[in-house]
Amino acid sequence: MPSNMSTERKVMLKSFGAELIEVPAGDFDGAILLRNKLAKDNGWFNFNQFHNEQNIESHWYTTGMEICKDFDYNKPIDAFVAGTGTGGTIMGAGKFIKNRYPVCKLVALEPAESPVMSGGEPGLHGIQGIGDGSKFLVNLGDIDRIETVSTEESIEKSKLLAKQYGLFVGFSAAANFLVAERLIEEGYMNLDEIRKRMDRLQNKSNGKSKSDYKANFWKPPSGEKSVIRIVPYKHNKEVPFTELYFYFGIDKPRMMSLSNFDESDPILEFASQLRKSNDPDNMALAKKLYPKMRTFAPVIVRGEEDKGVRFWEFGKMVYQELLGVMMDEDYGDITDIAQGRDVTVEVIPAAETGKMYDTTTVRVKPVQTPLSDSAETIESFLENQKNVIDLFNKYSFDEMKESLQKYLAPSEEQETVEATTPAKEKVDLDSKIDDLFG
């Protein structure tokens, strides 16, 4: 390694038993050439992290995923700032994030003393771990902006972060923080454009407008209690609940699985093939690809009877609770039009519970009541019901296969240039899809 690398790095490597061979300060090219020669001559394993495409892949499947898990899918990440050493972080994690949030800008950071990506000359600096990433894995065509930070600025910011926030980070992390502050201060992110794009996604979800959604679906308001009545379902006399399976965030905000129609589903088939491989990475991807069940019940909202029957969508926990009530003979048929029971639905905000998401609770009222005092109104409620499955777009096998391919290896033919998966992984995944579907 170059002789100007930090003492901490040298001590750590020596503690693992490594023999350190130092080359002149700043001479990464010399270090790489010597490493390659030693590995070849001695038959040693060579990580080759500066040129190994698996460096990018590892950040795609680990760092990028971990970051996105901490963000709401409907709240985009505006920018991702990363100092470039090998370039693996910004090309892997950054492109994964941009794939999920196309509005996200990828901002590469390099030392002000060595602004090579910005068109300057290389030089010595004190920000360990970053430098001219374009020499290695960084494709400048994928980068939206390049920023520079001096060693002095990084050191001062590092001290400030420790004093103000108790964050004991290194100089490169401090440099990232400093650039992120810069972007916020100068209004680099176009919030109006971000809002427009988010509105487009929400308005075009499943091809239905917001007005269509509100007319057909009811969502319990957060922080409030609502009283509803689950009504008999016109399209299934035996049970009022409809179980449907969906994919979320695979090219589109929501897609119905073709398994709902007992038809062949390319995404489900691909996930099943991955799961059979018993490879941990494949199984993790399969778990992400499997469709998720959502349950729908036709309801009348008390105080909003004039809006007619709408569908309430809920998850597994609420569904289990409602099924448990309906199996209890003491409650009877809570959907009965003459002697049914209303249900109180309360949504407790996540901020009050300390959980990641809001918590929905249901409580069936003890008193039996009619659906309505008007026979004409009851008849209207029972007859004027849509089939919930018709309220979602049904995509063809080929359309879903195309969405799967875009999700695994997104194209760059969009308004905002989107990232693609690492080249090697793209080939592997394409070949798996071709093997499965011919």
Can you offer a commentary on this structure?
The protein is an alpha/beta fold and 438 residues long. It folds into 3 domains: 7-42, no CATH class; 53-194, Rossmann fold (3-Layer(aba) Sandwich); 207-391, Replication Fork Single-Stranded Dna Binding Protein (Replication Fork Single-Stranded DNA Binding Protein, Alpha-Beta Complex), CATH 3.90.198. Helix content is 40%, strand content 15%. The protein contains 15 helices and 11 strands. The protein has helices spanning 7-15, 28-42, 53-69, 88-100, 151-165, 171-185, 191-203, 210-216, 266-276, 280-289, 316-327, 350-353, 375-383, 397-408, 423-437; strands at residues 79-83, 105-111, 145-149, 217-218, 225-230, 242-250, 252-256, 292-301, 310-314, 343-348, 359-364. Strands 4, 5, 6, 7, 8, 9, 10 and 11 form an 8-stranded mixed beta sheet that branches. The protein has a 3-stranded parallel beta sheet with strand order 1-2-3. Helix 3 packs across helix 4, helix 5 crosses helix 6 and helix 9 (266-276) packs across helix 15. The longest helix has 17 residues, at 53-69. The chain is elongated. The protein starts with 6 loop residues before the first helix and ends with a helix.
Number of strands: 11
CATH topology of the largest domain: Replication Fork Single-Stranded DNA Binding Protein
Average of pLDDT? 85
What is the level 1 CATH name of the largest domain? Answer: Alpha Beta
| Termini separation | 49 Å
**Any idea what the CATH architecture of the largest domain is?**
Alpha-Beta Complex
Low-pLDDT stretches are: 201-207, 411-427
If helices are DSSP runs of H or I spanning 4 or more residues, what is the number of helices?
15
Secondary-structure class:
alpha/beta
Give the CA-based shape: elongated
CATH superfamily of the largest domain: Replication Fork Single-Stranded Dna Binding Protein
The biggest beta sheet reads: 8 strands, mixed
**Domains, number:** 3
Work out the helicity level.
40-55%
Oligomeric form of this entry? single chain
The helix/strand order is HHHEHEEHHHHEEEEHHEEHEHEHHH
